């Protein structure tokens, strides 16, 4: 996590009355950064007693907003203007060198240690990271879903740097305009924006959505930066002086620090209170600690000024950048070490590399002893292009396939569909496996001359129906509320888009252990009760999709190897991966198809996957043994699936015509 060094916020003040408003180097702020980065490292090590360590990032946000605003206001007071060019140059010097080094190292080394699921996503992760928009990539539901059920990205931690980068770009522009009218105008704007940011949190209906939309969204997390900005502005006001003079701030800081330590040990990412004003309340606590750290004396200032903690704070930017890939590389599986020893190894490697980076890369560039003047701009652009090119060239998705996917995405966005309105319109319905396969099949259809894609519904994380409770990762829990009413959404989409053919693919959720309630015995496919419910759901899906005149092409589900959140199978995932379960599901699909000869066809995708030369678990096709990779989806569509779907479409047209003739 980047935070500007507090000494970078120093500005010469032309007015003696404002001299105290400029912020000289404060050792306690370095110590605060050190404490926060250690909290994040402990959290990412999986220690249960540090389950709230992710909140260290929130304190980083507030401290960053405070320092940046202090710098901007002090410069405005000293010179009467803001030099945005100088401000952004300082940010580039501070941010870019170590960030580029991290991205480049991950991209170049990816084939040696990343799983197929991580590597196939790395190109887009890297490009979004370099553009400082990667947090919005993680906001998307499908990406959040993949992070749960496959391996996380080695660049995942850059989400917070993206939010700060966006703040550094926009906030100085706002400050430059409003400071012309005085500090009060900027303060009012910050208050209004804080309220708006908090209001965003109440627009997301479920905690499941909140954990990606509100956690990663810039608009939802902006309040934490803005509270820091308000603290910087408040320190200049007359109302702040009595608090400082009365000695209340050190005591308030101690109380706030104790609450923060409690939150670091007890909070979890899934706590609903965080997403309903909790992050804003925590930001106020961080602001109180910052204010106490700036007092001439007090327990907070004394504790945070410890020499070793200040050193960790000095190298905290590099430590934050390097720790996540290092932690993933030095896993328990690779090292065989117990948790305490593993953390000690990870911490030692992280801090050693961070210290070297600070000494030989970050500090020389920031002080302009390396790349002085305009050389920085040219070097930055060249370095960005080189790292981006490396991400593209080393991607497991071939460049021709990337070109096809990009072209077809652009054509779809611009509405450049085939002109022949008589071509059958084909839509896709199902779960995340359907979503992953549609990436390739829709591209293949757009390139052809016999059909065109027409959207559909792919409910990520949802099966064909809701039974009651499901076992996942060894735990029983009620099925996701968003999965209720799935068939109604399918039916509404058919009415809206009027596809001629609806392709359906489901399976990974249908093979899970399920039960009606905690008092009901666990059931799996092969159990008469669950078989009957599954068959009824297939019939209901066919009826819903064909009610408005569409036909159904149902794909049999390939066998799967379900993985746990760490990339390793748990007992429940091993059970869900039993081939007999998928085989039973496919039998039920065929049974229903025989009842709808003029409205439904089955395309045996499962058999095709088994007969492929690489086998059904080829990582080049299905990177996590469940979902299709973009390249794998396109290859399967080109090799076999696309023509088979069109054959089934022609058969259905003929059957429908015969039925009307009769």
Mean pLDDT across the residues is 87
Helix % is 55-70%
Query: How would you characterize the largest beta sheet?
Result: 5 strands, parallel
- Give the C-alpha Rg: 28 Å
Strand content: 5-15%
Concise structural overview:
The protein has helices at residues 27-44, 56-79, 84-113, 116-130, 134-139, 141-149, 158-178, 183-200, 207-216, 218-234, 240-246, 248-266, 278-293, 299-304, 307-314, 316-329, 332-335, 339-366, 375-393, 399-413, 432-447, 486-497, 528-546, 571-576, 579-595, 605-611, 630-661, and strands spanning 425-430, 452-458, 469-472, 475-478, 501-505, 514-515, 551-555, 600-603.
Task: Write structural notes for this entry.
- The chain has helices at residues 27-44, 56-79, 84-113, 116-130, 134-139, 141-149, 158-178, 183-200, 207-216, 218-234, 240-246, 248-266, 278-293, 299-304, 307-314, 316-329, 332-335, 339-366, 375-393, 399-413, 432-447, 486-497, 528-546, 571-576, 579-595, 605-611, 630-661, and strands at residues 425-430, 452-458, 469-472, 475-478, 501-505, 514-515, 551-555, 600-603.
- It is mainly α and 662 residues long.
- The strands form two sheets. It has a five-stranded parallel beta sheet, with helices on both faces.
- A hairpin with a 2-residue loop joins strand 3 and strand 4.
- Mean pLDDT is 87; it is low at 2-21 and 417-421.
């Amino acid at each position: 996590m980047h935070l500007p060094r507090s000494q970078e916020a120093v500005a010469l003040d032309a007015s003696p009355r404002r001299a105290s408003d400029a912020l000289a180097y404060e050792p306690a702020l370095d110590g605060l950064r050190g404490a926060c980065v250690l909290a994040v490292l402990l959290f990412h090590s999986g220690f249960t007693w540090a389950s709230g360590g992710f909140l260290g990032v929130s304190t980083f946000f507030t401290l960053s907003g405070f320092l940046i605003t202090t710098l901007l206001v002090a410069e405005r007071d000293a010179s009467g203007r803001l030099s945005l060019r100088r401000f952004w140059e300082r940010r580039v010097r501070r941010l870019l060198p170590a960030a580029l080094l991290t991205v480049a190292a991950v991209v170049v080394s990816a084939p040696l240690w990343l799983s197929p699921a991580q590597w196939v996503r790395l190109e887009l992760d890297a490009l979004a990271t370099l553009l400082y928009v990667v947090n919005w990539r993680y906001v998307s539901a499908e990406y959040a879903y993949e992070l749960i059920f496959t391996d996380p990205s080695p660049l995942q931690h850059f989400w917070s740097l993206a939010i700060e980068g966006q703040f550094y770009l926009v906030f100085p522009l706002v400050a430059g305009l409003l400071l012309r009218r005085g500090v009060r105008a900027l303060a009012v704007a910050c208050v209004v924006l804080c309220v708006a940011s908090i209001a965003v949190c109440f627009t997301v209906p479920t905690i499941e959505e909140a954990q990606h939309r509100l956690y990663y969204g810039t608009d939802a997390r902006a309040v934490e930066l803005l509270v820091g900005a308000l603290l910087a502005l408040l320190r200049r006001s007359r109302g702040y002086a009595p608090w400082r003079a009365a000695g209340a701030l050190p005591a308030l800081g101690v109380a706030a620090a104790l609450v923060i330590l409690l939150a670091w040990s007890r909070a979890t990412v899934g706590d609903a209170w965080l997403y309903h004003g909790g992050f804003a309340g925590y930001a106020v606590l961080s602001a109180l600690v910052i204010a106490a750290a700036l007092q001439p004396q007090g327990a907070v200032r004394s504790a945070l000024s410890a020499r070793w903690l200040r050193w960790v704070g000095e190298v905290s930017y590099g430590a934050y950048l390097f720790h996540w890939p290092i932690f993933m590389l030095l896993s328990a599986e690779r090292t065989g070490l117990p948790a305490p020893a593993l953390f000690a190894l990870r911490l030692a490697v992280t801090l050693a590399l961070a210290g070297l980076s600070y000494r030989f890369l970050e500090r020389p560039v920031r002080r302009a002893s390396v790349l002085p003047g305009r050389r920085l701009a040219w070097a930055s652009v060249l370095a960005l292009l080189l790292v981006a090119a490396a991400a593209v060239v080393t991607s497991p998705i071939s460049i021709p396939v990337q070109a096809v996917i990009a072209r077809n995405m652009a054509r779809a966005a611009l509405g450049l569909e085939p002109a022949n309105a008589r071509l059958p319109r084909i839509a896709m319905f199902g779960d995340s496996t359907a979503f992953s396969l549609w990436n390739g099949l829709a591209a293949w259809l757009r390139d052809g001359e016999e059909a065109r894609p027409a959207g559909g519904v792919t409910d990520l994380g949802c099966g064909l129906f809701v039974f009651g409770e499901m076992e996942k990762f060894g735990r029983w829990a009620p099925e996701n509320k968003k999965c209720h009413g799935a068939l109604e959404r399918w039916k509404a989409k058919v009415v809206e888009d009027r596809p001629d053919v609806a392709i359906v693919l489901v399976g990974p959720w249908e093979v899970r252990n399920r039960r009606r309630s905690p008092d009901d015995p666990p059931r799996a496919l092969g159990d008469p009760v669950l078989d009957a419910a599954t068959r009824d759901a297939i019939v209901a899906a066919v009826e819903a999709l064909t009610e408005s005149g569409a036909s159904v092409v149902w794909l049999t589900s390939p066998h799967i190897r379900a993985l746990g959140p760490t990339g390793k199978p748990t007992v429940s995932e091993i059970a869900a991966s039993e081939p007999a379960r998928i085989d039973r599901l496919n039998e039920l699909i065929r049974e229903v198809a025989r009842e709808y000869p003029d409205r439904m066809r089955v395309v045996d995708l499962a058999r095709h996957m088994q007969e492929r030369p690489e086998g059904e678990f080829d990582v080049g096709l299905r990177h996590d043994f469940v979902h299709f990779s973009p390249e794998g989806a396109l290859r399967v569509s080109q090799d076999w699936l696309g023509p088979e779907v069109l054959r089934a479409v022609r058969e259905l047209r003929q059957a429908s015509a015969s039925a009307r003739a009769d």
